[in-house]
């Protein structure tokens, strides 16, 4: 493959998604030569280049075909799509997968001292946000006549600074709202990071590489959600023990040296075992219960 035939993936250079994106690429088996400050990182083992940019630029780079793939928050993707649609510009992407990081919600908030408010309070108000198009869509749907004040950062200080009456900002733990004396209202959008592709991509080699990476991505996700469970269970209680174990796969049973009453049970569970379930297993006579992480999976 020549240099311009290398699959180009856009990720956030520095911010909330960067570490998770780099970790994901590593788990997919993409080795990168990442040096700080470099815009482009070349993979040393696959025909892949990683572009490290501001997250706001990622959807546009993929829509315009400058990059073939991108990892970005659904919030930024939706805002860019709405903005482009309002300008009659091309705004299509293929959403290949929702990822299990970057969870946050876009929510309304207002000064705590005003107490709980319903939607009618927003009538005629100014709402500061980095997501004016998503906000405008919500206001339109709800029939609220309020205006969006665009701010690219520090949205949470806008009411105190007299720039707006309320805000529409990303919330994860709620600590930022609390620290700024704001009360949370309606959630407008729930967001995760997602993997997007340029829908016009037609290079066969690149498409073949994406087809190779997608099952790996599925395997990484499944492995994260699964646990390998090992325990010793009394033969007489096997049915009850199995009923307590999450997941539908058949367990492996192995005989235990020197014991006729007990067997070793191994299984891949679709979720982790809670302490409560482990206590119930113990109460049934199970012992030596081990719950272990799985690194990779392939069906
Ligand atoms: N508190 C949070 N917890 C989890 N994910 C978040 C949180 N805040 C934002 N995100 C997600 O991470 C993305 C990037 O957030 P970040 O704050 O790093 O963006 P930024 O300041 O706009 O960075 P950039 O310099 O790349 O423009 C957001 O668009 C959102 O999808
Ligand atoms: O509910 P919380 O857990 O407090 O998270 C919410 C905050 O996280 C994000 O900002 P970030 O901390 O990434 O910094 P930024 O504003 O500089 O982008 C977001 O813009 C909120 O301000
Ligand atoms: Mg940004």
Automatic annotation (TrEMBL):
Q: What class of enzyme is it?
A: transferase
| UniProt KW keywords | Amino-acid biosynthesis, ATP-binding, Cytoplasm, Glycosyltransferase, Histidine biosynthesis, Magnesium, Metal-binding, Nucleotide-binding, Transferase
Its GO biological process terms? L-histidine biosynthetic process
Q: How is its activity regulated?
A: Feedback inhibited by histidine.
> What reaction is this protein's catalytic activity?
1-(5-phospho-beta-D-ribosyl)-ATP + diphosphate = 5-phospho-alpha-D-ribose 1-diphosphate + ATP
Pfam family of the protein (one): HisG
Keyword Electron transport appears in the UniProt entry: no
Gene3D superfamilies documented for this protein: 3.30.70.120, Periplasmic binding protein-like II
Q: Tell me, in one coarse class, where this protein mainly resides.
A: cytoplasm
Protein name per UniProt: ATP phosphoribosyltransferase
Q: Which gene encodes it?
A: hisG
């Amino acid at each position: 493959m020549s240099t311009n035939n290398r699959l180009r993936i856009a990720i956030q250079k520095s911010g909330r998604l960067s570490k998770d994106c780099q970790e994901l690429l590593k788990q997919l088996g993409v080795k990168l030569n990442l040096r700080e400050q470099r815009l482009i990182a070349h993979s040393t083992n696959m025909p892949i280049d990683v572009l490290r940019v501001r997250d706001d630029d990622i959807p546009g780079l993929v829509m315009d075909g400058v990059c073939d793939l991108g990892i970005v928050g659904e919030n930024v993707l939706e805002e860019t799509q709405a903005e482009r649609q309002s300008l009659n510009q091309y705004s299509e992407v293929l959403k290949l997968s929702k990822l299990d990081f970057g969870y946050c919600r876009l929510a309304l908030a207002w000064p705590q001292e005003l107490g709980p408010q319903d939607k009618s309070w927003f009538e005629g108000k100014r709402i500061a946000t980095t997501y004016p198009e998503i906000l405008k869509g919500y206001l339109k749907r709800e029939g609220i006549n309020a205006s969006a004040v665009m701010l690219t950062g520090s949205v949470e200080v806008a009411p105190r600074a007299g720039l707006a009456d309320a805000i529409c900002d990303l919330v994860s733990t709620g600590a930022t709202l609390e620290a700024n004396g704001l009360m949370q209202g309606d959630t407008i959008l729930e967001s995760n990071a997602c993997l997007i592709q340029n829908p016009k991509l037609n290079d066969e080699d690149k498409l073949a590489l994406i087809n190779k990476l997608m099952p790996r991505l599925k395997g990484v996700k499944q492995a994260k959600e699964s646990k390998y469970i090992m325990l010793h269970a009394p033969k007489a209680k096997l049915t009850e023990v199995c009923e307590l174990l999450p997941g539908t796969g058949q367990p492996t049973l192995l005989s235990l040296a020197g014991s006729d009453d007990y067997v070793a049970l191994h299984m891949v569970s679709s979720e982790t075992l809670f302490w409560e379930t482990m206590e119930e297993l113990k109460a049934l006579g199970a012992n030596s219960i081990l719950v272990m992480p799985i690194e990779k999976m392939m069906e």
